[in-house]
Give the backbone structure.
Amino acid sequence: MPVLRRAALTLVFVSAIVLHANGANVAHDADTQEIDRSIKPGDDFYTYANGGWLKTVAIPAGQATYDTRALLTERTGQRVRDLIQEAAAGHSATGTAAQKVGDYFASFMDVNAIEAKGLTPLAEELAAIAAIHNTTSLSAYLGGTLNSEVDGLTANADHIFGAFVNQGFEDSRRCLFHLLQGGLGLPDREAYLDPSPKAVAVREKYQAHIAAILKLAAIPASESRAADILSLESRIARAHAPDADAADVFKQNNPWKRADFGAKAPGMDWRAYFEAAGVAAQPEFVVWQPSAVTGVSALVSGERIDVWKAYLQFHLIEHYAAVLPRAVAAEDFAFYGTILSGQAQMPDRNSGAVAATNAALGQAVGQLYTQRHFPAAAKAKAQAMVADLIAAYRVRLSHLSWMSPATKTKALAKLAAFRIGVGYPDAWIDYSALRIVRGDAVGNLRRAEVFNRSRNLAKLRQPADPDEWRIDPQMVAAVILFSPNTETFSAGLLQPPYFDSDGDAASNYGSAGAGIAHEITHSFDELGNIYDDQGRLRRWWSADDLASYRAATAKLAAQLDRYCPLPDLCVSGQQVLTESAADLAGLQVAHDAYVISLKGRSDVVIGGLSGEQRFFLAFAQRWRRKQTEAALRRQLATDNHLPPQYRSDAVRNVDAWYTAYGVASADKLFLTPEARVSIW
Ligand SMILES: [Zn+2]
């Protein structure tokens, strides 16, 4: 089972935009019903906007928080489940998306067939491991199984290295082969090195888990082999880059020529490795963590072959655990689900099958999803809103007072080159070369991986495609890729109450629009200022820009410092500054864009509220969340986002909000015009 964790900043996954709840017909009544009219908007805008919701919604048992994102994840998950099950029940023509999706799911669900086959579907690969007899054959096996399912965020647990085919850090025109560290069954390097009793206990349990898996595969001397495997992984872990280095993108940018590997990382038979990996002709690589490549390569020739073979047997079985007999899947869950993640109960097979189908055939499921839930008209509506947001941002960037003129030119170039995808990709992945066979769960997974790998390697021979989607449309998600210079907002995210293509524009701009504009801001702020318009790694702010940005944000930090959600605990303005500046910019840009969208007309009144009022109301509603006090304390200690009510309070800095709601100096949220902050 692959262990997922954040590994780098090249890709910044952002959590779903939180807007207002209660699905349908946002435009007509939902927002106004959730208002608490006993509260004066100028005193407590968050409770005014969300009072009804806050009174009626409860945190589900066993959870610490509940918000719109949770609601949407639930709803979208059910829709995806329905679509996949329908595909499995139907008889679609061979080769269609529905056939592949349906057969993949059905094969995963067919536990009797899986049980009956035992480990025989892995026989061929186990034999290949058994045949390893020297460094060259070991290197060839490692190269032949190089994992291409990594993306800079996903650690690959079952393969020593991962390949991420993406544009170069310095050359945006073509894709390069980025080589990433991997091979650890525990979550990270620290898990192997931490001497605390808790970490020692987890390692003991991991070793017992390795032994149990080997035993289930009837591999002899399972106990001593488990000890050997843990020892090998500990040495791999020592070679891994520390987390701080692994997260520093400048330390990831290490161009190696093909010839460098032999000199810089002796041990592996690199010729055999790259030939088996299918990249023998590749002249250049980007090695993200050189210490791992050097260290692991030394281990390839320095460690006993039989230990490597045991390591590979274990990780092979682990990798396919979900589609192997019950005993293996149960053992896998006992360690990864219960011991590492604290889950008491194994999720039902159906959930696992849905997740596996999404993982293997993400865009095939995405096609079925968008055909039903995100028509082309919705995409066109979202694109029009994005165009207004970009137009609004262009004006704001042009007028920034703290940014130097030379830097402004670069910012505007970056904005012009920006690619924002909404809903679903313009071009879908062509799955015609991928054969999905009902009844062959292991084979389906293996073929899906081979398909993805050849698809990734093929990118090395084509110009880089900045419009490629890295998330699936049916996810409730957005992603910023600084390299390339793109942002993507899924169909799963762009649905009511965040965005209603048939609904009220004021609400759409105030909610989804503000969310998208927030993310756009990150491409220009302290997160994005190390990537240029082409997504190349280079700092484009001057030292003076940085100094004047810091000065411009100091006033906001001071404003945030005064928020104290608990009698003994206040917000740290510095900790949440970058995100709060993006919240404020998101609000301002979305408001400008809303005005642009009106093209001089005045908006209609709905539910007694003007367009301006609905815009700000939707903004306040997008942050609504219920959470326990423990969750709030955790958030204040570690999160770089404000608690929800204060995110909503960004409106205090916007003049138009005062006008829309008639907020005056006696109101609690009132700020004098001089105290209002504007950064972007
Ligand atoms: Zn953010």
